[in-house]
Amino acid sequence: KHSSWNPIHVQYARKVRRITTFRLKNLEKCSAVGGGQQPTILLSYREETKHFPTRPVDRDKAEAELTLNIKKATSPEESAPKQKHVRKCIVYTWDYHTSNSIWTGLRVQPILSDEVQTFKALIMVHKVLQEGHPITLREGHQQAGWLETCARTIGHDGMRGYGALIRAYVSTILAKLRFHRQHPEFNGLFEYEEYISLKNIDDPNEGYKAFTINDLMNLQDQIDSFQKLIFAHFRGSTNNECRISALVPQVKESYGIYRFITSMLRAMHRREFGCDCQKPFDQLRPVLFQQEAKKSITAHLCLGTDGMDALQPLRERFNAQHQNLRRFYYECSNLKYLTGLINVPKLPQEPPNLINGGDAPELPRRPAKTPDIKPPPPKPETPAPDIAEQARMLKEYEEKQALLQAERDSEARRQLELQAKQQRDFEEMQRMQAERERMAQEDLMRQQMAGMAAENEIMLVQQNINAQLASKDEMMNSLQDQVTLWRNKYEALAKLYSQLRTEHLDMLSKFKAMQLKANSAQEAIDRMERMERDMKSKNLELADMILIISIRRAQKDELERLKRDLRFAEERAEDASRSRSSETSNVIAKYNRQLNELEDDLQVSLKSNEHRIAELQRLLDEKTLEASRIADEKDQELLILQEGMDSTIRQMNEMTLNQGDTDQALNAQIDNLILDNQKKLNAIIDSIIHACIQRIEDAIYELESSMHPGNETATPEYTLSLIEKTQTAAMEFSAVFGLHIDGAPGGEHVEVIKTANSMAICLAEVLVNTKGITRFASNDDAVESMARVGKESGDVAIRFFNSLMSYRLGVIPLSSRKQVVVKGNGEVSTSLQHLSSTVERLIPKGAKDLSKTTGEIGELVEKEMTMAARAIEEATKRLEMLMSRPKNDKHTAVEIQVHDAILAASLAIANAIARLIAAATESQAEIVAQGKGSSSAQAFYKRNNRWTEGLISAAKQVAYSTTLLIETADGVISGTHSLEQLIVASNEVAAATAQLVQASRVKAELMSRTQVKLEVAAKAVTDACKALVKQVKSISAKSMEMKDQHDYQNMPTHEFKVRMSHLIIFFFTAPQTILTFFLLLSRAGYHTEDTV
């Protein structure tokens, strides 16, 4: 590039450059194989060699890897960024000649939210600007705004002490970018060729301004202040690895600037003072150029004093920066982690001599100016006398020319000797260069041998990898077999799990309902037991009091009896005295009469009967003695009775005196006992009312909760019948409670408890079924409106029950208590009527309103039941016809067996449904007979029109579902329907059966014989449907196993992956499809009777 070099010198320089380029390429290969960091000199020569390893095919993969490397380099851990990640970012800029992807990757990472990530990102940016492609510096000017954002994000010192470091680091990077914008000829590490850097410093003042050496020193001061700040922020108790890693680019950049400044100052001093340092390239310069340079020494020395004064400030500032760098490198050399990453430069104690030679190359000398040779003036004509003088002068001139010729000859010899010496030196250099080339060739051979060894090792590794891949393929095949086996098992388990999950959810909902009922029933039972115990104790106390009262009454009765006995005794005594005298007289008269007769007889037969007379006399004496004895006994009895009467009269007098005090105390005890008993009975009533409130609150919770679906088999007609039943229960409860307040017959505590529980249970069922029929609503607003109306009904009932608490009624006058009951009943009826009108909106417009029917409703009900029975009968006949139909030859024996099993199960279901319809007809007749009273059946149906509508709808649904089941069974046998359709039809039959049972249960009496018979028939239908579903599922599972006969082991890889992808897509899209169809069914699952 120097115009003063001869062709030999140019050829030699080109040869040196080729050798250098070849070594750099080998060094790059070694660095790539070894995984080490690329040397700085390699990066500086990339632009010169114009190597563009663009890879458009791998661009997307490279950008993905770049994003991953940026994420790993800026991880939130307080550690140094990994060199391999930063190096891959640098290599990316050289591969694709752009850094925009790096800046984009930094922007998308959440580094601004963490100060450690921000600091590590700045370290990575600084290294990329230093060692990346030159385009990185030009593109970095556009990112100044993002760097300033990094500085503003962290306030003060931050939580980990990186705030000040981040702001200082941003200032350093921005200063570097400004310098490179003003001086684009510099690379990131300031390794610029000196002959370019010295292009504008012929004049010291001009060089000081034009080249702006002051900018380099300012950037060096910026680096020095930043490194001092880093050392000041070291923490003794924590890991400083992240802070130390920021010193690595500072050391590299400061040393590059230092060498550049040293080289520039030496060049400027050589320019000013003419110092000619012997360098290798001086030997290659032409001799004439050196002679002209020597001739110009005097001209340069005349400017030495002014140049010395101009360069004095630069030398002083350079000396100060030298000492600062020396301290900086000394402190860095004491950091073990830093010395493990880079080699820290070592500067001498004293600054280098800028005038004498150094390591920097010499400043190219300016070409000497060729003096203008003026042509000699024409010789004037000389006079003749001067010829002698001219001859003498000519002789002197010739002598001088001879001397000059001798000098030229000697100078020529000296030049020849010098050229010979230079030739010898040149040959020595060529020999040394050949030696170096031989050594380089040997190094290259060694490297090639190492490369061949590495290739052999790679081949061995490749063989091992191939063997491992083969073993892995075998393992994959075995695993594939296991996967196929486990997939089949998993599918079977999935089907079983879905079935178990459905049953489990059903059982959970049933268990929850039963648990709530059991809890409420258990609480009621516990309370009833406590009340029974209290009642027993109070009954015992009451029995004691009653015993006392009975004793008192017995004493009174005994007193009255004694009085009556006294009167009776007195009467008996008077009668005895009268009877004794009369008896004596009678006996005497009798005896006299006998005596007279005897005397007559004696006179007649005196002689013959003397002995008899004596006997009679003896008898007379005995009778006389007996009569006297009887008279004495009567006298004694009269004395005893008189004494008893006297004692009784005395006791009566004593009791009369004490009777007043005893009656008063007894009445007070009886009153207290009655009051205590009344309080306990009121407490029992309050407890029952509180249990009813709790039951309604639980139903409201289920209504509002999204986890409880409610009664999924409920229909609007059935819900309306429940609302009607609840209104009736509320009216009965209000009537009984009113009688209870008045103390009238029919208002006993047992009746209050029974009607209150009945009302709460009915209202809870209304709310649960209201939640179930929300699936028929057209939109979410209708669902929310229905839930809100149902909750309002529950709240009104809760307020009604709360107003009937004893402590609330106790503060209300007795005359106003019945008004509270009547008012609450009216509010409950109004809210239920509002709910009823809301539910009626779900009934299709084509449905009939039985309350407005003018015909015989009983006949309509009987007609529907008869039609249902007829439909079941026809279905049974059709099944029997299908079973007796000849078998199709196209079907196999297994298929014929399957068809027979399906028909047998369907026939069992049809027979069970026939018994169900018969039981439902009997139950309906019993309900009408018990409920109509003295009125007609027509009046009963019209009065309970909601229940009648639900019953008719249930009967229609049973008939329709049975017909659908038979048609589906026929379709399965004919091949027009699938087994899944048969399962759906069976489920429809079970749901219709449950609806019919619920409709009958609304009006049935407790423990009704016909209702029990209906429940048994419904259970038989349900069991038959379950048996059919189970049988169909087993048949379907066998069919699936027969269909899925794919040989996945021998299947091609592409076909296997396509099949697996289809299965995965179906696995993810099936739940959404199921949910969509479920929503459609829930919105349009209820139709008018015309569509059934």
From TrEMBL:
CDD domains in alphabetical order: ANTH_N_Sla2p
Organism lineage string: Eukaryota, Fungi, Dikarya, Basidiomycota, Pucciniomycotina
SMART domains: ENTH, ILWEQ
Region spans: Disordered: 350-385
Presence of the UniProt keyword Cytoplasm in the record: yes
Coiled-coil residue spans: 387-414, 511-633
Protein name, per record: Cytoskeleton assembly control protein
Entry's family note: Belongs to the SLA2 family.
Organism: Puccinia sorghi
